[in-house]
């Protein structure tokens, strides 16, 4: 059996949501928005699968899960160009050809909002 790293991540997201819901005496969780950087490698389909399985029987069961991806953004260390590579392996600056640089975005992973009743 292949174990995906999205399972523990989704479990952590649900824990945050349930703690928030309990703190605010929520009857139900309607929507959860999660921001995920493209560089993390987390895929939406397994996250949704684990979300449905793990939230079953909780106040978050049936809640809409919105996944918002942030692009990879890199600042070239050679010329200062800020660019968005196609993926985490294509880090050649389109301006000067230098490889790598300072990652400005794409590593994010956080719960952005929780809507409750």
- Record the strand order, biggest sheet: 2-1-6
Mean pLDDT level: 94
Compute the CA-based radius of gyration. Answer: 18 Å
The share of residues in extended strands comes to 25-35%
Number of helices: 2
3D shape: elongated
Distance separating the two termini: 38 Å
Could you give the order of the helices and strands?
Answer: HEHEEEEE
What is the highest CATH level, the class? Alpha Beta
Largest sheet: 3 strands, mixed
* Total domain count: 1
* Assigned CATH architecture: 2-Layer Sandwich
Structural class: alpha+beta
Low-confidence stretches: none
Helix content range = 25-40%
Count of β-strands: 6
CATH fold annotation: hypothetical protein PF0899 fold
Description:
This protein has 117 residues and is an alpha+beta fold. It has one domain (6-116): 2-Layer Sandwich (hypothetical protein PF0899 fold), CATH 3.30.2320. It has helices at 6-23, 44-55; strands at residues 29-37, 64-70, 73-75, 82-83, 102-105, 109-116. The chain has a three-stranded mixed sheet with strand order 2-1-6, with helices on one face. Strands 4-3-5 form a three-stranded antiparallel sheet, with no helix packed on it. Helix 1 packs across helix 2 (44-55). The termini are far apart. The model has no long low-confidence stretch (mean pLDDT 94).
């Amino acid at each position: 059996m292949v174990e995906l790293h999205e399972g523990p991540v989704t479990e952590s997201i649900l824990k945050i949501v349930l703690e928030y819901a309990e703190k605010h005496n929520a009857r139900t969780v309607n929507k959860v928005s999660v921001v995920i950087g493209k560089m993390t490698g987390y895929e939406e389909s397994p996250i949704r699968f684990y979300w449905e399985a793990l939230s079953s029987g909780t106040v978050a069961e049936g809640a809409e899960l919105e996944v918002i991806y942030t692009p990879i953004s890199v600042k070239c260390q050679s010329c200062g160009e800020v660019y968005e590579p196609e993926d985490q392996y294509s880090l050649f600056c389109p301006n000067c050809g230098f490889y790598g640089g300072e990652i400005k975005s794409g590593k994010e992973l956080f719960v952005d909002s929780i809507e409750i009743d």
